[in-house]
């Protein structure tokens, strides 16, 4: 296991175009499982490839355990990268595919057989070692690709969209396998994804990237509860924002004065408030109560989602399936949220 530090890491592919990764600073501690999350084209794969040594660094540094590795070639970095559609060698069996890296390192046949067998057990494909890649399902190919990467016992595992393109069942299986691998092999792991759900399902920590810049880095929970900007909150599915100005009485908004302890000591400051959908109750409360038009009501099985409108704002509310208030579409209803549930972004 090693620590990875990115120090002002920058990548500019073409001099005539802006950098695609811009002065990125972050540390992935040994044994962490980190998601690089962001929309398509924000530079995630480029970052991963610079860590792997597959792309040069335009400026800044990649450090492994405090040592700069910028000039160390990919094959000497003890890093493996598994691509989304990692191709297996079609002319080789599953076992030969998995053992390939060990053969290249000139290990003896017995040792190779033993470690390949270990890997086949790990990916629950014992007995399938003699199959060729065309005889495998998509999920099995992905597991073999992971085993082929891990068999050389790398210090760092880099994964490109590991759960994408898998149906719900295979997604859970692959997730369990990656978590097991991470635990058993104690390997520092970074994966890239554009899918917030994939990041949340798998990662301990998330690094959210927009246009090559790091916008927030930390525990998954903080992205929901303490997003650092409206953009970060929106990316995590939140649409409940309202602008206000802090005053002695609370926060003055277009729907009246809202109460929040966070407004204290911020008199006169303009703020953007966020309230999560599950923290809004469909009832008339003592404070922070708004009368809204029910634009939409959808029964989702485990919860009911209201889309509510007030003073040009469109918010989401999640309620239990028992629907305490039982508001109907097209009608008006009271909603409230406790002051400690307001977050200032
Ligand atoms: N080899 C390259 N030469 C020039 N530009 C490149 C190269 N590779 C990537 N880019 C550009 O760099 C930007 C970031 O690409 P990158 O693949 O790192 O993004 P990403 O966040 O991983 O996207 P996606 O989720 O779609 O894979 C894009 O604008 C892309 O066109």
TrEMBL record:
<keyword id="KW-1003">Cell membrane</keyword>
<keyword id="KW-0067">ATP-binding</keyword>
<dbReference type="InterPro" id="IPR008995">
    <property type="entry name" value="Mo/tungstate-bd_C_term_dom"/>
</dbReference>
<dbReference type="InterPro" id="IPR013611">
    <property type="entry name" value="Transp-assoc_OB_typ2"/>
</dbReference>
<dbReference type="InterPro" id="IPR015853">
    <property type="entry name" value="ABC_transpr_FbpC"/>
</dbReference>
<keyword id="KW-0472">Membrane</keyword>
<dbReference type="GO" id="GO:0005524">
    <property type="term" value="F:ATP binding"/>
</dbReference>
<dbReference type="InterPro" id="IPR027417">
    <property type="entry name" value="P-loop_NTPase"/>
</dbReference>
<dbReference type="Pfam" id="PF00005">
    <property type="entry name" value="ABC_tran"/>
</dbReference>
<dbReference type="Pfam" id="PF08402">
    <property type="entry name" value="TOBE_2"/>
</dbReference>
<dbReference type="InterPro" id="IPR003593">
    <property type="entry name" value="AAA+_ATPase"/>
</dbReference>
<dbReference type="InterPro" id="IPR003439">
    <property type="entry name" value="ABC_transporter-like_ATP-bd"/>
</dbReference>
<dbReference type="GO" id="GO:0043190">
    <property type="term" value="C:ATP-binding cassette (ABC) transporter complex"/>
</dbReference>
<keyword id="KW-0410">Iron transport</keyword>
<protein>
    <submittedName>
        <fullName>ABC transporter ATP-binding protein</fullName>
    </submittedName>
</protein>
<feature type="domain" description="ABC transporter">
    <location>
        <begin position="4"/>
        <end position="236"/>
    </location>
</feature>
<keyword id="KW-0408">Iron</keyword>
<keyword id="KW-0406">Ion transport</keyword>
<dbReference type="InterPro" id="IPR050093">
    <property type="entry name" value="ABC_SmlMolc_Importer"/>
</dbReference>
<dbReference type="GO" id="GO:0016887">
    <property type="term" value="F:ATP hydrolysis activity"/>
</dbReference>
<dbReference type="GO" id="GO:0015408">
    <property type="term" value="F:ABC-type ferric iron transporter activity"/>
</dbReference>
<dbReference type="InterPro" id="IPR017871">
    <property type="entry name" value="ABC_transporter-like_CS"/>
</dbReference>
<keyword id="KW-0547">Nucleotide-binding</keyword>
<keyword id="KW-0813">Transport</keyword>
């Amino acid at each position: 296991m090693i620590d990875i530090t990115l120090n002002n890491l920058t990548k500019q592919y073409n001099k005539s175009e802006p950098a695609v990764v811009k002065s990125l600073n972050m540390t992935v501690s040994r044994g962490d499982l980190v998601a690089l999350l962001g929309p398509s084209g924000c530079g995630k794969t480029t970052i991963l490839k610079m860590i792997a040594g597959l792309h040069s660094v335009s400026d800044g540094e990649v450090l492994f355990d405090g040592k700069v590795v910028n000039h160390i070639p990919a094959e000497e970095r003890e890093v493996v990268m598994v691509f989304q559609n990692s191709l297996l060698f079609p002319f080789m069996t599953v076992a030969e595919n998995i053992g390939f890296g060990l053969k290249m390192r000139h290990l003896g046949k017995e040792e190779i057989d033993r470690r390949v067998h270990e890997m086949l057990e790990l990916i629950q494909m014992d007995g399938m070692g003699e199959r060729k890649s065309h005889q495998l399902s998509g999920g099995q190919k992905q597991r073999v690709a992971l085993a082929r990467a891990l068999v050389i016992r790398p210090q760092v595992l880099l994964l490109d969209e590991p759960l994408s393109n898998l149906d719900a069942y295979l997604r859970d299986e692959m997730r369990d396998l990656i978590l097991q691998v991470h635990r058993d092999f104690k390997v520092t792991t970074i994966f890239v994804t554009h899918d917030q759900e994939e990041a949340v399902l798998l990662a301990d920590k998330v690094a959210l990237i927009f246009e090559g810049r790091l916008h927030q880095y930390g525990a998954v929970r903080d992205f929901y509860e303490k997003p650092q900007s409206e953009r970060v909150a929106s990316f995590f599915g939140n649409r409940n924002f309202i602008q206000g100005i802090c005053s002695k009485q609370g926060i003055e908004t277009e729907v009246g004065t809202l109460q929040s302890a966070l407004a204290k000591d911020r008199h006169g400051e303009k703020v953007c408030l966020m309230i999560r959908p599950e923290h809004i109750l469909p009832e008339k409360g003592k404070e922070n109560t708004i009368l809204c038009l029910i634009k939409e009501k959808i029964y989702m099985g485990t919860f009911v989602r209201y889309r509510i409108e007030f003073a040009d704002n469109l918010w989401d509310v999640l309620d239990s399936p028992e629907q305490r208030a039982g508001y109907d579409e097209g009608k008006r209803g009271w909603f409230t949220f406790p002051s400690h549930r307001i977050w200032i972004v």
